[in-house]
What we know:
By secondary structure, the protein is an alpha/beta fold. Among the domains are: about 260-315; about 325-480, Reverse transcriptase/Diguanylate cyclase domain (Alpha-Beta Plaits), CATH 3.30.70.270; about 495-740, EAL domain (TIM Barrel, Alpha-Beta Barrel). Helix content is about 45%, strand content about 20%. An eight-stranded mixed β-barrel has the order 20-21-22-23-24-25-26-27, surrounded by four helices. Strands 6, 7, 8, 9, 10, 11 and 12 form a seven-stranded mixed β-sheet that branches. The protein is flat. Ligand C2E binds near residues 512, 526, 538, 539 and 646. One magnesium ion binds next to loops.
Amino acid sequence: MPLLSRSLNGLLTCALLLMSVHSLANHQVVSIGVYHNPPKILINAEGEVSGFFGDLIKEIADRENWNLQLVLCEWDECLTLLKDGKIDLMPDVAKTSAREESMSFHQQPALHSWSQVFAHKNTSISSVLDLNQKRVAVLDGSVQQSFLTQLAKEFELTIDWQIIKGFQQGLELIDAGQADALATNNLFGGFHANQYNLEPTAIIFQPAQLYFASPLGSTEHLERVDFWISQWMDKTDSPYQQILQGWQTQTTVFVIPTAFWLASGLVTLLLALSLIFLKRMKREVHSTRDELQRNDEKLSDILTSQKQEVHQLSFYDYLTQLPNRRLFMDRLQTLLVNLKKEPANGALILIDIDNFRSLNDTLGHQMGDLLLTEFSKRLYEYLDSNVNLSRFGGDEFMLILEDLSLNTHDLLTEVEKIIDQLRFALEEPFHLNQQEVLTSLSIGVVLFSEKNHDANELIQHAELAVFDAKKAGRQQVRFFDKEMQQQAEHRTQIEFGLRQALKSDELLLFYQAQYTDSQVTGAEALVRWQPLGKPLVSPAEFIPVAEASGLILPIGQRILKQACEQLVAWSANPKTAHLVLAVNISAVQIHDKDFIDQVILLLKETGAPADRLEFELTESMLIDNVEETIVKINKIKELGIRFSLDDFGTGYSSLSMITRFPLDTLKVDQSFVSDMHKDIRAFNVVKTVIELGRSLNLNVIAEGVETEQQHRSLEELGCKHFQGYLFAKPCPIEQFMLEQNLGH
Length: 744
Ligand code: C2E
Ligand code: MG
Ligand code: MG
């Protein structure tokens, strides 16, 4: 339990607990930092400093006539106080070259210590490799944490880290069955081992020598500490040895490896050994340290050789060197566990090489092996290095796509895009021993989220999807999820239909009026697809497909042309010459290298007034290639075209980013407008956007205004521009002109 909470930090220097060793007369006041780290340092029930360092400094203080003032602090606070010269001596400090630059140490180490993993008795952990799949408590920011995470990475171990704020919390986790092991220092672990059913493991690292430290350059007290330690070190009955024995008695059992206890089997013998051990404490400390170092070296040699063995034989496929099924399953399981903490969508993709068996039979196994090797190389080179990939079986490869969009449309687009690219790369001919080999792939996809917990079930589903793909005639992609499969097929149909729509002019524009002070000031152009003899298709359905397939470029071009032509028609009529037409521009368009040239050409060809044209962008477009997009927008603005930010508030753009873009208008997203009277958060978003617009000197238009109540509230908040069903619905141009009374 911490002695002082951090929030009391400010009061810390006032919280000096005066402990009088003798009368104050002729005593020098020496302040000592005390933090709670038993058995090394602690405050006992009587309120006195104790523990190994505490008792030692009391003995020294007695002889030096020091009046010890205890400064209670947390570890990092203590170090800051020491560096600032506010305490004279700080115990239990490991000497490092970095620390030697900001504090002074004495010569002879006061104590030898090391880090060690202590495991619950019911958990069998005897080597680093046994930490795989275990819940290990580590102190946040500690040396143990950095050492063990590095080790886990090196050995590709999957460890469920339980990050703790203090070692005591680690003990509590173990006690509650929420952790299997705790990484701590040998003294702390040993001190509490019995009470918490802990056993020391052979995972020992980072031996350290502990000292008292003083503010940099202040050696007066340190010299005295050194004097007494060197006086006492070699004498078995000296105060130093007695204190060490006193605190070691409780930890002796943990310094001796458990195997020793088991091997001896005789408690009496152990007691006798313990007594001998106590008497030879000094020698033990030294020899333990030397042995530890030797053990450390031995352990690391063994582990290094085990590492290759474990990795290559247990976790990697011998032919392709890719992770094997076992490692893949481990990783998938870990991922599913992590998803519970941080929900996200992902996909498992199982790739099966069509007709591999017959290829193997006709060309021979050697060629089969060669194909698998080359195939996996291409796959590996093609994919991002962070994608989990494995050779899952004979001719089956499995990969995990993580962090996919939470929106189903976008998710499908992302998955399909990667699969298309994969197929493109892998269905290119392979040249094996001067022979050209062509492959096709059957691909099964199963989507997962935090709702999935069972890795085996997911794998089964991916296999079923591949089976479906094979049944459908191979060289197919199949989703396990029937709904997804239907959507994927639907999208393929839309893509096909859109190609047709471009040829037969089935795309038309609707216009939705925009209002300022009850006057129509312009309109937003909204595309519609009217397939021959079928109902209108909503842009929400076909624009994402058009974007994913690249068809948005010719479609966007077509829309822009129609919009320009409409502006030309309006400019000829005094009633409509002032109208501004807003056109939605997709990310794919704005990032297309030819976009600016095409816009310039269109303006020239149609003669449309650029200052009546407004481009609507969405926030997501402002995230990629920021610098390049700013340059582009500026160039387009030079033509006279304005910019508005559509659906504002739904994306991730930060305020600082928005201010970098030369925008004219913010469009409050309709979802906030529609909820503004139901949900205070939505109301606050609307209010903030309006205030933001005012402070950035930008117009703010509210879209999706459906009710008088919304209109009134928006006006009260200072919004002046409106669009929504309350004023007008999107409609064909003839209707728009009629409704808005804009005819000749
Ligand atoms: P958007 O740009 O935010 O357009 C506003 C959407 O809200 C339009 O849907 C409009 O019909 C609808 N809307 C307007 N007022 C109201 C209202 O009061 N209540 C409700 N519930 N809805 C209202 P639409 O036409 O279906 O368009 C959907 C989205 O498709 C657009 O959202 C835009 O992102 C995209 N889109 C439409 N036309 C184009 C286009 O020409 N090019 C591109 N790239 N995207 C387009
Ligand atoms: Mg829009
Ligand atoms: Mg919008």
